[in-house]
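pasting for ref
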Amino acid sequence: MALLSTLVDNFNDNIIGPDWGNSYGGVTETSGRARLPCVAGTYAGYQTAKVWTLAGSSVYLQVPVAPTVNGGSPEVQVVFSIITSTAGTNLAFNINTAAGTIRCESNVAYFDGAAVSLTYSAVTHLWLRIRETGGNVLWDTSTDGSAWTNRRTLATPAWVTAAIDTCALDLWSFRTNGTTNYAEIDNVNTPASSASTYFGSAALTADGTQTAAATRSIVVAADLTADTSLDASSVQTAGASADLAGSSELGARTDAADTDDITIQLSEPRGGWTVSQPWI
């Protein structure tokens, strides 16, 4: 089961990847974003194959550029939708800059009379997320892709739980009329590429201590008990000091000098010598 949460693309390679094999309308991947032309009377979109599952999953993304009005009316749109094989049945965020709205939609036959409509803000609604959990579908928005605000909650439509491996993600743009421009989508199920990494400190508790002592060692092999063994290639680490504890002793061995080439002979005394014990 291919959960939608596992679909990830930051569009940084400027190549439309294989996950978007059903794309249409002259879309491109430009400057690290998915770019959707917004042309009068024409739909253009990034679309996956219908092989995904929303039930028990989620999908989020960034909309850094919504198409400007440019004389268009009544619709100048960029839409983030999850579709099925049944035309007109989908879940969607619909941004319409001509109307100045963003709608949270659960459409059947292309319509949702109970859709939640908000005043669109490019800052407040920069990040969008649709998820299914606990028997509900939720539409959430965020300014940063981290802290989310729920905008609509709806009991999960039956088609969502039935559509296993038959959903698709469809990101499209359209205008009724006016001058052509474009929308841009970025960071599908991935944080913004400019996000920072933060490092914190850790403290040890109770009687714990943490030390670092350099040790020089050669590890060749190690045998484990039971029915297994562990082999390791040689490893050398720097050595600076060693601590001995308890009754440990540290000694040194010095080998004696080689005296094999020295011969000592004893014989009787010769004349001119004073003889004493033991030669008397």
